């Protein structure tokens, strides 16, 4: 397959890519400015088209907000530009003579693309992958003209959602097929508990056979024997290297030398991730001889609470606010258990990273966590989002730690799990083929 990526020209990306050839220009629509398309490639040669529009993307901060975490006021324009560019390249404005047979778009920032295809009368099929339904891209209805959205699209069968324009709903409605990043999450989002108000539309798509769950994978760099970020390499059954990584992590976080288990949190510090449950459980973990390291960034009150927790338990709880990949990889490699008490988790990658590095996840049985963790074999699962249920799994982890033979057996099983992209890639290939065949049949 001839796969190419389209991505906004964020400041860091453009600076890292260096000089790039401009291969196309796209016109304005409504308040969406004209832009150019630059071309670069990934390290392994995958073509990347970069949306060059400095007035929208050349900014300090994150892709979605400024340096203080405040959303950009023109995010609707910024991501409508991305969606429209994808639809235009698939329609009247091919790049370098290349027009895709199919668009595959991700989450709300690109979810207007299938809608623009429909409004442009384009027959190019489009698949939308939902990574997190909770983020929907909601904007005032009075901005429709600025976004080039036809007035008739503002309805329940279109972009309207509780009096606003929903980018994600538009994608769910107009896409030919919807995928999520696990089979469990594909079912969960058709329920009131996890459907975020869109469960009715998603149940319709499920009944039509147009909603599929395909579990994510992780790349080949997650190999504890070859990862250059680690303090020492190791493999299943050769645990000395893992112990050296644990020593490195304890030193980095100022923890005492300990014979107890090392629990880790590598996460965004937000309610979805159950950070409050981790904070509540910490007292019991420390009392039973465990240590905890946390790295991540998120809501200020969680950052403050975790910092206070560390101050109450010096030498037993260590906190690093922020994210640094080398440190995160060493934490996965050095920890015994990874805490993931998520209230919902569409797929989750941290548990796969941890398993690959011999750290057993302790997680709620939701979304992709339920699919990637075999309870009592490659980690520990608990059912309800409550402190009692969570601690029950934590205590089982302590029990496993006390039995060195069982701990080694579980580590080996976790490290042997196949989390590569081979199976997901086959799933997407089948789905792409089906979408193209249906499109050809419709055209005939």
UniProtKB/TrEMBL annotation:
- InterPro entries given for it? Glyco_trans_1 (IPR001296), GS/SS (IPR011835), Starch_synth_cat_dom (IPR013534)
Task: Please verify whether the record's keywords include Glycosyltransferase.
Answer: yes
The protein's annotated catalytic reaction(s) are: [(1->4)-alpha-D-glucosyl](n) + ADP-alpha-D-glucose = [(1->4)-alpha-D-glucosyl](n+1) + ADP + H(+)
Q: What UniProt keywords apply to this chain's record, in alphabetical order?
A: Glycogen biosynthesis, Glycosyltransferase, Transferase
MF annotations from Gene Ontology: alpha-1,4-glucan glucosyltransferase (ADP-glucose donor) activity; alpha-1,4-glucan glucosyltransferase (UDP-glucose donor) activity
The Glycosyl transferase family domain covers which part of the protein?
A: 259-409
Which Pfam families would you find in this protein's record? Glyco_transf_5, Glycos_transf_1
Question: Taking every annotated instance into account, which residue ranges of this chain make up the domain Starch synthase catalytic?
Answer: 2-203
Quote the pathway field.
Glycan biosynthesis; glycogen biosynthesis
For whether the record's keyword set contains Glycosyltransferase, the answer is yes
One Gene Ontology BP term is:
glycogen biosynthetic process
The EC code for this enzyme is 2.4.1.21
Instruction: Determine the domain of life of the protein's source.
Output: Bacteria
Main function? Synthesizes alpha-1,4-glucan chains using ADP-glucose.
Per the record, the similarity remark reads: Belongs to the glycosyltransferase 1 family. Bacterial/plant glycogen synthase subfamily.
Any idea what this protein is called? Glycogen synthase
